[in-house]
């Protein structure tokens, strides 16, 4: 009889150990789930910060480019004024510390802008002169 009760006791102890192990596993799983939630929330917040940073960088770059364009126009106008006063490219380059090539490039942007500004106007004039193909087709039917 002692062996039967010891077997029952051994089974009860084994069940108890198994239940304790399962309970510990459940606690670990719950803790791990909380840690994972915390981790993924941090990753999400980090992603939001990265996106916000990228938006700010884009905005800063756009602002800087706008300011640089304004300064480039001021530089072009200043050099054009000197040139219009009769100074040559070599003299302007010497005075500004730029090479003659750089001086021409700064002055050349003005011509390039005039060409690109007149191109849309010419295109718009061409568009006005040419009839709309859809309207022509509709009128013919």
Principal-axis shape equals rod-shaped
Number of domains: 1
Helix content: over 70%
> Whole-number radius of gyration?
39 Å
User: Could you give the count of β-strands?
Assistant: 0
Poorly predicted spans:
120-141
Mean pLDDT: 83
Structural class: mainly alpha
Q: What's the SSE pattern?
A: HHHH
Report the span from N to C terminus.
Answer: 110 Å
What is the count of helical runs? 4
Question: Any overview of this molecule?
Answer:
Helices cover 91% and strands 0% of the residues. With 141 residues, the chain is mainly α. It has one domain (2-130). The longest helix has 83 residues, at 2-84. The protein is rod-shaped, with a radius of gyration of 39 Å. Residues 50-77 form a coiled coil. Residues 1-10 have a biased composition (Polar residues).
């Amino acid at each position: 009889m002692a062996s039967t009760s010891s077997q029952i006791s051994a089974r009860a102890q084994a069940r108890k150990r198994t239940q304790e192990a399962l309970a510990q596993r459940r606690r670990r799983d719950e803790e791990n789930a909380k840690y994972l939630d915390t981790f993924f929330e941090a990753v999400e917040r980090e992603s939001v910060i990265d996106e916000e940073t990228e938006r700010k960088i884009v905005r800063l770059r756009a602002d800087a480019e706008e300011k640089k364009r304004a300064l480039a126009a001021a530089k072009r106008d200043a050099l054009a004024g000197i040139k219009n006063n009769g100074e040559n490219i070599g003299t302007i380059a010497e005075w500004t510390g730029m090479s003659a090539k750089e001086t021409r490039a700064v002055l050349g942007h003005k011509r390039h802008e005039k060409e690109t500004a007149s191109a849309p106007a010419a295109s718009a004039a061409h568009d006005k002169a040419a009839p709309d193909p859809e309207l022509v087709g509709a009128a013919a039917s």
